[in-house]
Specification:
This protein has 476 residues and is α/β, with parallel strands linked by helices. Helix content is 42%, strand content 17%. The chain binds cobalamin (B12) and iron/sulfur cluster.
Length: 476
């Protein structure tokens, strides 16, 4: 019997023309090409019973036409979206789909719809939102749609029922170990293999979901309720081995929000990687400075030996008051400790910082943050190893229902009342109404001058930074 078709769609994350041409995000260091893990996580739950079509705007040219063609006899269209341009692209596609096929159920999931479900459903082209972890809910939902059953009992969804929007109770956050492996073979893996710094063949992978921290600027605590689940160490290592062998992968870009949360588990992963020695490196591995600064050197040594090649820290700010306002639970002094540990253990560092936290002394925040960044650049520059560090510097951006979104509206941000408002909102260079224009321009100038963006050597950087420091004096 012919199976019903389910279309899974990952819209374009950026509009920025340079980003699209370079296949990088607007940070210009973060590759835009990613395995659509969100869609594959859903696909694994329904692939046996349905014909699943995966369409990823980043790699599928002509994606609108592909979706329209697939829609004719489909059961539903399911769209994944973060709070960014994906919303705008997703809306355009759903509008076109509904014009052709008004009765086709359109489902949205992912971070944005999960944290803003009702507003998402106020959009005329969206019928159902799945909140939070999608696997079980999506499976149950598509079976209900297939059997034309009521959606009333499906946990974790919000949906339109006549003129009303109904919100069912939340779905439980389940352990990742109960789900089948991510079915990479359902996409053309070769299209998603990327180069990254030292890596020739780098592939995305995740070993855990969620985060236990409660940073007030971040969507993660709202999305996962500060829960976290990690795959068993044996599973992680056997999956990495299998993927490395099958697709000839030398490096995995680790997509977990917090890879280092459970140190005993991590030690086991490292021990297994050292024992099996699959010849791979792990990069962009997310860690929290407030955890990693206190980890013993022998454990750091294990990280290195196991292949952890780069750690991605959300340092966020050089101003303690800003870290406190974010509820980061970290001290600025931990930044240097983490940098020193990375240097000592020959692990590359990638640090992200942001300025523009509402309520801060903007000048102090900028100066302290520049100082920390200069400290990192100098530490590597003096050793002649600038290629082993990377800094992302951005402007604070409010996300739905976070505490810092509320602080932003109190500080003059015009509330974002519709899904379209969020889709059109500049996620990268957000110029907050409270942030002085001259600081905004100076931060952009500083960012463009950093060695990883300008290509300058350490000597040139020192001259450039001196020039920036001289200008602090004349700022209001
Ligand atoms: C890979 C990644 C990217 C990739 C693109 C991913 C993509 N979808 O195309 C790139 C690098 C392009 C990217 C960009 C950005 N990202 Co990003 N990214 C991630 C990351 C690290 C992993 C995502 C992933 O694949 N996870 C694994 C999958 C399995 O989990 P998942 O996506 O959550 O999917 C599950 C559920 O959400 C749900 N689900 C997801 N989609 C759908 C769809 C349907 C229909 C259903 C039913 C369910 C469902 O079910 C899935 C299984 O449980 C996450 C952090 C994280 N750990 O998740 C951040 C994250 C998603 N990104 C985030 C942000 C903010 C951004 C940027 C906007 C940041 C910025 N200002 O630059 C940019 C946007 C573009 C730009 N300006 O450059 C935030 C999202 C916050 C929010 N409110 O949207 C996150 C959570 C990081 C964070 N903690 O802040 N990102
Ligand atoms: S540690 Fe990272 S992912 Fe977790 S809440 Fe804070 S910013 Fe979000």
């Amino acid at each position: 019997m012919k199976k019903n078709t389910i279309i899974l769609f990952n819209p374009m994350p950026v509009e920025h023309p340079v980003a699209i041409t370079n296949k990088m995000t607007t940070s210009l260091q973060v590759p835009l090409i990613n395995v659509p893990l969100s869609l594959l996580a859903l696909a694994r739950m329904v692939r046996d019973d349905f014909d699943v079509k995966i369409i990823n705007a980043v790699v599928d040219s002509d994606y609108l036409q592909k979706i329209l063609d697939a829609c004719n006899d489909a059961l539903c269209l399911a769209v994944s979206s973060m709070t960014c341009y994906q919303i705008r692209d997703g809306i355009e596609v759903c509008k076109a789909v509904k014009e052709h096929n008004p009765s086709l159920p359109v489902i949205w999931g992912g971070y944005h719809p999960s944290t803003e479900p009702v507003q998402t459903l106020n959009n005329p082209y969206i019928d159902i939102v799945i909140r939070g972890q999608g696997e079980l809910t999506f499976k149950e939902l598509v079976h209900k749609l297939k059997n034309k059953e009521s959606l009333n009992g499906v946990k974790g969804i919000s949906f339109k029922d006549g003129g009303r929007i109904l919100e069912n109770p939340a779905q439980e956050f389940k352990s990742l170990d109960i789900f089948p492996p991510i079915p990479y073979e359902m996409v053309d893996v070769e299209q998603h293999v990327k180069g990254y710094k030292f890596a020739k063949r780098c592939l995305d992978y995740y070993a855990s979901q969620g985060c236990a921290a409660g940073c007030d600027f971040c969507s993660e605590p709202l999305f996962c309720g500060r829960r976290w689940s990690g795959l068993a160490p044996e599973t992680v290592v056997s999956e990495l081995e299998y993927l490395a062998k099958t697709y000839n992968i030398d490096t995995f870009m680790i997509r977990d929000s917090d890879f280092f949360i459970n140190i005993p588990r991590l030690k086991k992963i490292c021990a297994l990687l050292i024992e099996k020695n699959p010849g791979i490196r792990l990069t962009s591995v997310n860690g929290r400075m407030e955890q990693l600064w206190r980890i013993d050197d022998d454990v750091w040594g294990l990280f290195k030996k196991a292949g952890i090649h780069e750690i991605f820290f959300g340092f966020e700010s050089g101003l303690q008051e800003a870290l406190d306002a974010m509820n980061k639970g970290a001290k600025t002094s931990q930044i240097k400790v983490c940098v020193d540990k990375c240097i000592k253990h020959d692990i590359d560092i990638r640090g992200s910082f942001m300025v523009g936290i509402p309520g801060m002394d903007a000048k102090e925040e900028m100066i302290r943050t520049f100082e920390e960044i200069n400290g990192i650049i100098s530490a590597y520059g003096k050793m002649g190893e600038l290629e082993h560090m990377d800094i992302l510097l951005s402007f604070f951006t409010p996300y739905p229902h976070t505490k810092l979104y509320d602080a932003s509206t109190r500080n003059g941000l015009k509330p974002l009342d519709t899904l379209e408002d969020w889709g059109d909102f500049d996620q990268f260079d957000f110029k907050a109404p409270w942030y002085p224009q001259e600081y905004f321009d100076l931060v952009k100038e500083f960012r463009a001058g950093m060695p990883m963006n300008s290509g300058c050597d350490y000597g040139k950087w020192c001259g450039f930074y001196e020039g920036i420091v001289e200008r602090f004096g004349i700022l209001e």
